[in-house]
Design a protein that fits this description.
Low-confidence stretches: none
Radius of gyration: 23 Å
Strand order of the largest sheet: 1-2
Number of strands: 2
Distance between the termini: 57 Å
Number of helices: 9
Mean pLDDT: 86
CATH topology of one domain: Multidrug-efflux Transporter Regulator, Chain: A, Domain 2
Length: 228
């Protein structure tokens, strides 16, 4: 690539984004303007390319809307924002589409039960955080619909994520110390997606396995097809 940078067509080719989409992001202020070289012409560099890839990851795999992406980018661009606050903002974005039940009493009971459970493990979590609110809402919904009122149903999930949360937090802190806030955000959002997908894949495997065990027919076994 020329030392003078990339044309917008080069930026499109390398990012995989159409030129009109890139122009829209430029007009919206999500991507910094390029270096003007002539009327209606500009040059762009690797930072522009990285920014576009960040937006593409958040909006496609992360399934975030434009407003959510804008909020996250503003947090990435704020050098005075602490890592904890950056994490909180990403959480607010990720959980924004998951409203909690309207009935305050079961929600309050679920929140209090979760507080006791987390405190018993020595976890320090702000009850006002988006993650805590969503967790309380989900537990309250299970209690109301399925009648499972004991917070102990969360124990296996807490066991599973305890070591994972510690490992991920250490990786985020390392990345933040290297001043790569964009990578911090990508890790938070993508590992949320990865964890959901892995859990779903594991469920699929074990449901298939259990179905085979309950069905003695050879055609029910993996790799077998029923006769035509």
């Amino acid at each position: 690539m020329s030392v003078n940078g990339m044309r917008i067509s080069d930026l499109s080719r390398r990012s995989g984004l159409p030129v009109p989409t890139i122009k829209f992001y430029l007009r919206a202020g999500l991507v910094a303007a390029g270096t003007r070289t002539a009327h209606n012409q500009a040059r762009y560099d690797e930072e522009h390319l990285r920014r576009l890839r960040l937006i593409a990851i958040l909006s496609t795999v992360g399934r975030l809307g434009l407003s959510a992406v804008r909020d996250i980018l503003a947090a990435v661009d704020d050098p005075d924002l602490s890592l904890v606050r950056l994490h909180e903002i990403v959480g607010e974005v990720l959980f924004a589409g998951r409203p909690v039940p309207l009935d305050e009493r079961p929600l309050s009971r679920a929140g209090a039960a979760i507080d006791r459970s987390l405190a018993g493990r020595g976890w320090w979590v702000d009850r006002r955080s988006a993650g805590h609110a969503t967790l309380s809402g989900a537990l309250a919904a299970v209690q109301q619909f399925a009648g499972e009122a004991d917070v102990a149903i969360l124990a296996p999930y807490l066991d599973a994520v305890e070591a994972l949360g510690h490992q991920e937090a250490a990786a985020l802190a390392k990345q933040d110390a290297e001043a790569d806030r964009a990578t911090v955000v990508v890790r938070i959002v993508m590992f949320d997606v990865i964890l959901d997908a892995l859990r779903f894949v594991a469920q699929e495997h074990y449901l298939r396995e259990l179905t085979v065990l309950r069905d003695p027919r050879p055609s029910a076994r993996p790799g077998r097809s029923s006769p035509g």
